[in-house]
Amino acid sequence: QVQLVESGGDLVQAGGSLRLSCAASGSVFLINAMGWYRQAPGKQRELVATITRGGSTNYAEPVKGRFTISRDNAKNTVYLQMNSLKPEDTAVYFCNARNFMRYDYWGQGTQVTVTS
Questions:
Q1: What percent of the chain has pLDDT over 70?
Q2: Among 89, 80, 78, 79, CA closest to 115
Q3: How far from the centroid of its chain's Cα atoms is residue 19's Cα?
Q4: Which residues pair with 46 in a beta bridge?
Q5: Cα(24)–Cα(62) distance, rounded to whole angstroms?
Q6: How far apart are alpha carbons 25 and 42 in whole angstroms?
Q7: Closest listed residue to residue 4, CA positions, set 21, 29, 18, 19
Q8: Who contacts 56 (Cβ-Cβ below 8 Å, separation ≥6)?
Q9: pLDDT digits (tens, 9 = 90+) for 32-45
Q10: Contacts of 87 (CB under 8 A, 6+ apart)
Q11: Facing residues of 104 across strands?
């Protein structure tokens, strides 16, 4: 089992920045990719960014150039630096870890609210 704990969500004005963190514990040696997803009210959960154990990254189009995902394998932690935030970035952000069998683990979510 893998446990994920997110932190860093907050209320921020448009144009501001936030940094989300997600610490993994438990059977972390099973983890391959980690990432962030978000879910806005009334919408489906969507991919934000992912990063593999080797450091390869993938971003959703709406966040390219504004968000940066990074990973500290020694600390079993993944980060999401969010700059130039927009009201449409408002959502609950979920940390995800996928093991080598492609099984997904999820954190409890952290709220990001961007005001105009």
A1: 100
A2: 89
A3: 10
A4: 38
A5: 26
A6: 31
A7: 21
A8: none
A9: 999 999 999 999 99
A10: 14, 114, 115, 116
A11: 98
As given in the structure block, the two tokens for residue 91 are: 């959502």
* Structure confidence at residue 67 (pLDDT): 98
Q: For residues 88 and 32, give the distance between their C-alpha atoms in angstroms, rounded to a whole number.
A: 30
pLDDT tier for residue 26 given thresholds of 50, 70 and 90: very high
Please state, as a whole number, how many other Cβ atoms lie within 10 Å of the Cβ of residue 62: 14
Residue pair 38/94 in contact (Cβ under 8 Å)? The answer is: yes
C-alpha 88/C-alpha 101 separation (Å) is: 33
Residue 4, burial from CB neighbour count under 10 angstroms (0-12, 13-18, 19+): buried
Output DSSP code: residue 27.
Answer: S
